[in-house]
Amino acid sequence: MLLVMYLVYALVLSIALRAKGLATPIAEGEPTPPSVERRVTRVLVIGATGGTGRQLVAQALERGYDVTALARNPAALDLTHPRLHVVRGNVLDPASLDEAARGQDAVLCALGHKKFFPPNRILSEGTRNLLRAMATQQVGRLVCETALGLGDSAGRGGLYYTFFVIPVILPAYFWDKTRQERLIAESRLEWIIVRPGSLTNGARRGRYRHGGSIGSFLWTVRISRADVADFMLNQLTDDTYLRLAPGVSW
Ligand SMILES: NC(=O)c1ccc[n+]([C@@H]2O[C@H](COP(=O)([O-])OP(=O)(O)OC[C@H]3O[C@@H](n4cnc5c(N)ncnc54)[C@H](OP(=O)(O)O)[C@@H]3O)[C@@H](O)[C@H]2O)c1
């Protein structure tokens, strides 16, 4: 009986994540039209000291961008480069985001945390502050990493995620991610939400699948943080997924 109740709870959660989550692009008012010729030279990385964030910083520098990294503890980044500028800040502090966003052409966001309990709004409030700073500083494009299993990708993280990880460990986290995605979609920015499968610290392969039907209802699909960063960086200048939320996995 308990098992049945648990399975029903997990299924209802999955259905709610789909129903409340992002399915189709929503925008209030007229969205800013995509630039005819997109020129990006300066990028801001949010979550720069994290797994994906470090890859974003390193690969953005490799690609020749001027990189600003927002970090709560700049020493944790452990990287110096003539084109890397580090701003000490917190996404829950709007002033530091304003400073970091000034003069940027685009933002790459790989924000995450491990405060799964009790429920909090770090992702959504941090993203709300980021969107406000981007609007104030007239930064055009946001590429933001979320996760498979949200909105119209609900269930696509595979059975292990649908029936264990999300309902037991991450229900509040995924709920806040749902709010985060909706805030981004309601903004008038050029945005691309990137939903990876389970993340690994493996090497960059440069070959992976992406689009609307990524993931499996049965198996856990994976991708390295290095390849997610590669895909996110491609979104800076590619309009294929503009105002969409593609999944990405090996
Ligand atoms: N793990 C998976 O299998 C998986 C699968 C799909 C999607 N995702 C999602 O992908 C994203 C990136 O995951 P990841 O494991 O690569 O990242 P991560 O290592 O958890 O790094 C998260 C980053 O966010 C920063 N951060 C947290 N709170 C902050 C705040 N208040 N202000 C500023 N920065 C803050 C952290 O800074 P500090 O170093 O200061 O803590 C860190 O740099 C997350 O949203 C995660 O949920 C994960």
Could you outline the blueprint of secondary structure elements for this entry?
Elements: H1 2-20, E1 42-46, H2 51-62, E2 66-71, E3 84-88, H3 94-101, E4 106-109, H4 122-136, E5 141-145, H5 159-169, H6 171-186, E6 190-196, E7 198-200, E8 209-211, E9 222-224, H7 225-234, E10 247-249
Parallel strand pairs: 1-2, 1-4, 2-3, 4-5, 5-6, 6-10, 7-9
Antiparallel strand pairs: 8-10
Helix pairs in contact: 1-5, 2-7, 3-4, 4-6, 5-6
Instruction: Kindly report the CATH topology.
Output: Rossmann fold
Report the order of strands and helices.
Answer: HEHEEHEHEHHEEEEHE
- Which blocks of ≥5 consecutive residues have pLDDT under 50? 26-31
- For the biggest β-sheet, the strand order reads 3-2-1-4-5-6-10-8
Helix content: 25-40%
Give the structural class: alpha/beta
Count of separate structural domains: 1
Strand elements, count: 10
Biggest sheet descriptor: 8 strands, mixed
At the fourth level of CATH, the homologous superfamily is: NAD(P)-binding Rossmann-like Domain
Radius of gyration (Å) = 17 Å
CATH class: Alpha Beta
Count of alpha/pi helices: 7
